[in-house]
Amino acid sequence: MRTLLIASLEPHAGKTGIAAALTQRLAYEGRRVLALRLGAAGDDRAAADARFFATLPDARGRGGAPLPADSAGPEIARLAEDGSAIVETPDGAEIAGLANALTASVIAVHRGAPAEDETLRLQNLALALGARFLGVVLTALPKSGVAPARTALDEAALPALAVLPEDRLLYAPTIGEIADLLHAHLLLGEAAEDNVIEELMIGPVSADPGQPYYTRRARKAVIARSDKTDSQLAAMQTDTDCLILTGGLNPSPYTLDRASNEEIALMVAPGDTQTTLRALEDVYGRSRFVSETKLERMSQLLHDELDFAPIGAALA
Question: Sign of the CA dihedral 13, 17, 20, 22?
Fold first, then answer.
């Protein structure tokens, strides 16, 4: 059994996406591999990751709950048997100590280009791990920053396994996450809760229903006042995946009927439009990696960018 830790110095770096995409790649190559998530009991984010990992190839029916980091070794060995385990570490973990305890190799994931102090911390981690340190994966860089970031890693003597450009889909929320964040009542679309929303649009406040305006974006959610039925109907004539109605009032029967026929998710948020927008300010970039759509995109990025040789050697 071989163990690979996917770790980061800070939260929201992209560990779950990297772990899932690597697991899928190894499974498609015919290897025995299992993705696991370390985390404390009651950690909802770790539990969501673990449930997602349990749906990956070669992982079905084998877990679905996070493992406690301080006693994970025997359980990882039991679950992974004679294959490999891709293990996402909890935020704030003591990475070197955990890697030594699990006899694991380590990939460090970092979002954006590391600042000077972050580069130093990565260098210290590499020194502490020695041969167990495989390299760094940078995520969510502006396209213009990809080459400079790779150069900076080379100058810092940090192996660059991949430098991934930012991708809006990877950091976009799902319908379910939006509903939870807004404490909204999901009237329609429970089956679509894992669908990713790449764009948010605000319904116009003028008398113009705004259909030309709505055609500018696809895979979107539209935020509209509960009493603006004309604007809601105009939005649903374009590529709209979700309607977020503000003000706490139930929509008209016309809106409900159209949304049901078009299979558009429909939720009612308790706050007004301004309150709803404030609640959604940080939703992009803080969503969980729990959809097949995101997995497909991350797999494509890694297929093009990842230096797989050190990983393959570590898991051989």
Answer: negative
